[in-house]
Amino acid sequence: MVTILYFASLRESLGNSREQLALPMGNATVSSVVEALRARGTQWTEAFAPGRTWRVAVNQQMAGLATPVSPGDEIAFFPPVTGG
Amino acid sequence: MVTILYFASLRESLGNSREQLALPMGNATVSSVVEALRARGTQWTEAFAPGRTWRVAVNQQMAGLATPVSPGDEIAFFPPVTGG
Amino acid sequence: MPSVRVQEADFDTGKELETLTHGRRDVGAVASFVGIVRDANDGARVSGMTLEHYPGMTEKALEGICAEASSRWDLTDTLVIHRVGPLRPGDRIVLVGVASPHRGDAFAACEFIIDYLKTRAPFWKREDTPEGPRWVEARPSDDTAAKKWK
Amino acid sequence: MPSVRVQEADFDTGKELETLTHGRRDVGAVASFVGIVRDANDGARVSGMTLEHYPGMTEKALEGICAEASSRWDLTDTLVIHRVGPLRPGDRIVLVGVASPHRGDAFAACEFIIDYLKTRAPFWKREDTPEGPRWVEARPSDDTAAKKWK
Predict the structure, then answer these.
(1) Beta strands of chain A (E only): which ranges?
(2) From the CA of C150, how many Å to the nearest CA of chain D?
(3) β-strands A2-6, A74-78 pairing
(4) Number of compact structural domains in chain B
(5) Average pLDDT for residues B38-53, to the nearest whole number?
(6) How far apart are CA B10 and CA B55, in angstroms?
(7) Sign of the CA dihedral running D64, D88, D31, B83
(8) Is residue B83 domain-resident?
(9) What are the beta bridge partners of residue C4?
(10) Residue A15, CB-side half-sphere exposure with 13 Å CA sphere
(11) For residue A48, is it within any domain?
(12) What is the complex's ipTM, to 2 decimals?
């Protein structure tokens, strides 16, 4: 299981701020997690569609599609940041 | 007559902070005033020796040797500035 | 030893900057930046905004940015305070303070920190406009500003 | 409408910067610089210093520098406070504050003002060292810093 967090506009459009997800079998990466989320259809497919702009952090470090994920990890998805 | 002011190390080495000076005849410039001061000898010659670094302002605006001076002007001599 | 805080409460700019130099005699320069909510953005009137962040990651990101600044320039201390929650036009959003023996280092590091914060620290702004709330979009100009430090 | 002051008294950085934004809603960025007396300079221990200036010309020079900054960048207000008289290590010497809709303009103008102040405003520092008082010499690095704005 991994913890998945959603922030800002992504949290709103998915109607979800936090969930637990079982990792796909094998050597999981951010990419495998995104595939699993896209497979839910509707707003999930749209939010993670290719070309849509989102960012990902693994264990609170900026990450990418190829970043490996392991059970217990915290994975966060969010739009480009706009603080300051 | 013009008013002449001296500041900082120049004030100290000349032992003078302010004086009135009669302008030389003709079209006076900062250069003519400096010549008149140099002619006083000793520390005056040294303070205004060629190659010595000093600055001049006429009526509180940065000026140069060629700047014209007229009766009533305020002429200030000082070393390069070091504030901030 | 960067000082990093994320808080709802306002801050006292003068008091906070004072902590950068208190008890020290080797600081010659303190450069600072305060970001403030404007009442207009991208052509719309803004009556307020709400700042969301990612607790935990935010602090790590800010500490990382300050550490990077300290490795690039000769700094004696750095400080970042960023507010979250509801804010109104005129309110302070963020304070970046940098102390250094020399002013050039202080200015460069201060601008570096705010430029990196704007592209790398997990904060998001939702503005209240006459047409309703909207999420602020990231600005390409912020990416450009951050890239100049590469 | 630059605000320029030369005074013996210390200043409250936070309160002074507040005047740049008070009652306004169009300021997004305030950049500031505070210069502080260090306890060492050019290899000597400094126990204190005295700042002399040229009353009248100083204010004109500072106003001119602020006006030049406002003509080069998009600023809503500028502020310079410079202390004179006796100062000790750790004391504030100068505050430069710049308000703008945008942070890039605020940073550039703030650094410009302090760089120009250091080469064009009639202030002189006399330091107290273990070998007695000495006048601080102008730094070539200050000329270099000012020339980058040409």
Answers:
(1) 2-6, 18-21, 55-58, 61-63, 74-78
(2) 17
(3) parallel
(4) 1
(5) 90
(6) 10
(7) positive
(8) no
(9) C80
(10) 3
(11) yes
(12) 0.94
Token pair 């040294």 is found at B46
Chain D residue with CA closest to B76: the answer is D54
Give the C-alpha separation, C75 to C3, whole Å: 13
Give the residue numbers spanning the domain of B11: 2-78
- A14 located within any domain: yes
DSSP letter string, C60-117:
HHHHHHHHHHHHHS--SEEEEEEE-EEE-TT-EEEEEEEEESSHHHHHHHHHHHHHHH
Inter-chain residue contact D117 with B83, CB threshold 8 Å: yes
Q: What is the pLDDT of residues D99-130, one digit of tens each?
A: 999 999 999 999 999 999 999 999 999 999 99
Contact partners, residue C43, CB within 8 Å, separation at least 6: none
Residue window 48-77, chain A: list those with CB within 8 Å of chain C. Answer: 57, 60-62, 76
| Contact call for B and A: 3+ CB–CB distances under 8 Å | no
Cross-chain residue pair C119–A60, CB shorter than 8 Å: no
Element (DSSP H or E) covering residue C50: strand C48-53
D48 beta partners: D128
Q: Please, which residues bridge with residue C48 across strands? A: C128
Residues D13-36 pLDDT 10s: 999 999 999 999 999 999 999 999
Q: Is B84 part of a structural domain of the chain?
A: no
CA B73, distance to chain mean position in Å, is 12
Residues near A36 by beta carbon (within 8 Å), at least 6 away in sequence? A21, A24
Q: Is B78 on the interface with D (CB under 8 A)?
A: yes
| Nearest to A47, CA basis, from A15, A77, A10 | A10
Token readout for D82 is: 């410079």
Both ends of chain B: CA-CA distance in Å? Answer: 34
Contact D29, D106 (CB under 8 A): yes
pTM: 0.95
Using CA atoms, how far residue D138 sits from A5, B80, B82, D144, in Å, is: 57, 6, 6, 12
* Chain B residues in contact with D52 (beta carbon < 8 A): 7-8
Q: Do C24 and D104 touch (CB under 8 A)?
A: no
Per-residue pLDDT, D2? 82
The encoded tokens of residue B62 equal 């940065």
Between strands C44-45 and C77-83, the pairing is: unpaired
- CATH code (residue B15): 3.10.20.30
Pairwise CA distance, residues C112 & C65, whole Å: 9
Q: Identify the CA nearest to D24 among candidates A67, C130, C36, C85.
A: C36
Q: Would you call C104 exposed, middle or buried from its count of C-beta atoms within 10 A (0-12, 13-18, 19+)?
A: middle
